[in-house]
Amino acid sequence: MTRPHSRRSWRLLLVAFLAVATLTGCGLPQRLAGVSPAPEQVATVAPLGADHATRIAARVLDAADEADRKSGDAAAAARQAVLTGTALAAANGRVAMGTATPSSAQLSRPEPPKLLAMSRGQAFPRLLLATNQDPQSRRQYLDLLVSPQVTAPFKLSYRVPMMAGASLPATGDVGRGIPMVAADNATGLVLSPKAAVEGYAAALGTPDPSVGEHIDAGDSFATALKASQSTQSSALGSLASLKQTHTLAPDTLYAVRLAGGDVLVFAQLDRADVITASANTKELKVPEALQKLTGSATATSSMTINAVEAVALLIPAQGKVKLLGATDQLVSGSVQ
Predict the structure, then answer these.
(1) pTM of this structure
(2) How many domains does the chain have?
(3) Is residue 215 part of a domain?
(4) SS3 312
């Protein structure tokens, strides 16, 4: 008579124990059920081996060079496959302007790229920073490759020629990776990456440039822009006025912290040249070279020419933000 009662009591105890374990998350160790905690993500090393990353960079840069030389229906697809962001916008602009490298041109392979750094950790986006030198001009380039998510391959996002005399501080051990820096993070810096880019952009405009105390706008790129602005304004005279703006394009900023604490920033500036006719001007003539962009040879009241500018800036802990490299490309235009 006692056994059924005993068996029923154990059964009730077991049911009660399982109910409590389910409701509280406590009970049998997970390893007894064949379940173990998910491994923690390693955020102190680069996500790829250096050799593997170098091969990826070389393959993407070779494919980008090939895509720039293609023509016809296959060209757009080839560019889309290996380029993204600013690099893609610039390549499409070269096609629109008719300045893309012709397919018949002899292919001059650059030297193999040197991998400088990888973004640290397993999170996305992931970055590869490389450099290579043009074998003919001997000009040094900074290349930034981006993989935005786990299912997306690395593509070339920035290819920026370095300014004469510019040098990039040490990036550190490639295998450890370098941390990415948020756009608004000014820790240990004179300016946050976003503020630095916007400050540099403000210094380039006309007719009212604004140079902040932490911005160095005396580089050759800025100097050439100012000279061009002066030349255009003089040529227009009293017939029209020129206004040029430079604006940080949304979602184009990438920043990484270098070994010594400085931050390297890549960003796209959207440049707009707006020429407005004066009250006594009947029409504006669009230069022949720009008619491919505007679709018209004349403008009644105004003409706008748009360009993308790829810039690489160095933000220090002290001193001023300096330009390491830059390039620009006309991409579109309109008339009114």
Answers:
(1) 0.84
(2) 1
(3) yes
(4) strand
